[in-house]
Amino acid sequence: MAHGHPPSHGSGAAGASGHASAEDEYLGTPEGSGHEHTDANVWIIAKFGLWLAVSAIVISGGMGLLFGLFVKQSEETSPEFPLAVGQERRLPAAPRLQQFPVNEHYEFRQQEDAVLQKYGWVDRETGVVRMPIADAMKLAVERGLPVRAQPPAAAADQPAAPVQQTPGLMPADSSAGRTMERRRQ
Fold first, then answer.
1. What is the total count of domains within the chain?
2. DSSP class of residue 180?
3. Cα-to-chain-centroid distance, residue 23
4. Is residue 60 one of the residues assigned to a domain?
5. How far is the C-alpha of 110 from the C-alpha of 106, rounded, in Å?
C-alpha cells in the first residue's frame, strides 16, 4: 500500500486480508476512481433545500399574521372579565388577602390600645361611656364591687344551722360550690 502495490491476499501476521486493520483498506484512493455521477443529483438536493427554506419563511409569516388577527379579534369581542358583564367593578367577598399584614396588625393593636386607654362613647343615646382600664380599676377599689343580695335570715337571734356534709358528696366545680355532686374516690 505504501509502495503502490495492490494488496496481497496471502496469509501473514496482518490477518487474512493482508491489512493491519479494517480501516487500512480505505486509506488510499485507487487510480481512476472518483464519484459516481448516477447516484446523487446535486441540483435536485439544492432545489429541495431552497424550497424548504422558502416554505419555512412563508409558513412562519402566515402564522404570525394569523396570530395577530386572532389577538385583534379577541380584544374586540370579549369583555375584560367575562363573569362581570354589565356590572361595575367591585371587590371580592371578604376575607381578602392582606397586602401588608405587619402594618395591619400594628394598626389593629393601635386601635385596640386606644379603646382600652382612652375615654369614648359606647352608646351616646343611653349615656354609656368607656374609660381607661387603670381609671376603672381605681374607681372599682374606691366604690367597691357590687354584691349579690343575701337571702333573708330565718331568725336573727338563732345561730345558723351547720351545713350537713353527706359522705361521698363534694361541691360541684360548675356551680362554684353551690351544689353537691357524688364523685369517685
1. 2
2. E
3. 62
4. yes
5. 6
Range of the domain at 69: 40-78
Cell 479494517 found at: 22
Measured distance CA(71)–CA(62) in Å, rounded:
14
Q: State the DSSP string of 76-143.
A: HHS-SSGGGTT----PPSSS---S-HHHHHHHHHHHHHHHHHS-EEEETTTTEEE--HHHHHHHHHHH
Q: Does the pTM of the predicted model rise above 0.85?
A: no
Q: Strand pairing of 169-171 and 180-182?
A: antiparallel
pLDDT by residue for the chain (185 residues), tens digit each? 445 555 544 444 444 556 677 787 777 777 877 766 667 788 999 999 999 999 999 999 999 999 999 999 888 776 666 565 566 667 778 888 888 888 999 999 999 998 899 998 889 899 899 999 999 999 888 888 877 777 765 555 555 555 556 666 777 777 777 777 776 65
Q: Is residue 21 part of a domain?
A: no
Strands 120-123 and 128-130: antiparallel
